[in-house]
Amino acid sequence: MMKPLINPTTAVGGAGSSHELFIASAPLWAAKGPPQFLLSAAYSLNVWDLQHFMLIVRSSSPPSLPPQVVVFDFQPKAPDDPFVAIAALSGRPVPGTILVRKMGKLPNRRCWRIGASIVDDPIREAYEFNRGWDTHLQIGHHDCRHYTNGLAEVLTGETRILDRLRGSTA
Predict the structure, then answer these.
(1) Helical segments of the chain, H only
(2) Do 146 and 57 form a contact (C-beta atoms < 8 A)?
(3) Which has more pLDDT, 33 or 59?
(4) Residues near 129 by Cβ (< 8 Å), separated by ≥ 6?
(5) How many CA atoms lie less than 13 Å away from 59 in the CB half-sphere?
(6) Of 28, 108, 110, 157, whose CB neighbour count within 10 A is largest?
(7) What Rg do the C-alpha atoms of the chain give, in angstroms?
């Protein structure tokens, strides 16, 4: 089971808070050397299927406090292990992990606002979603895209958000 990096009951929320949702992308992880170079090049060329996606909640509490930015994502437990990469790329399931962490601010590249949360406490809802998420990762069938779409659906009510983003960035 995932150990929380932040306390979901006190992280954000309360009277006067609002919760904006974002999806960000980053290059896929790979072992150093040629594999990392290839994935970085694919990311630079905006090859959609070779990007790692994550959901970000930005909560604004009272105006006197800075907004809080919390990232939720799903990735292999050992992303730098070449054997894990080979297994994942060949379509076999690999152990995955859900990561939850705070950021100082939103990324300034490849980060799209997808709307406001329809739930009062998106951090708590995300932790509930994570409790039910199967952490066996299988690229193309159960990966960061499926995780991001699923969590976004819980928090926005909209399905297949990555498809909408892909169409708007093409």
Answers:
(1) 34-44, 82-89, 122-132, 144-156, 161-169
(2) no
(3) 59
(4) 150, 151, 154
(5) 24
(6) 28
(7) 16
pTM above 0.90, yes or no: no
Nearby residues of 49 by Cβ (< 8 Å), 6 or more positions away: none
Q: Are 164 and 113 in contact (CB under 8 A)?
A: no
Q: What letter represents residue 141's amino acid?
A: H
- d(CA 128, CA 82) in angstroms, rounded, equals 32
CA angle 85, 91, 41 (to 5 degrees): 50
Between residues 124 and 39, which one has the greater pLDDT?
A: 124
- At 82, which amino acid appears? P
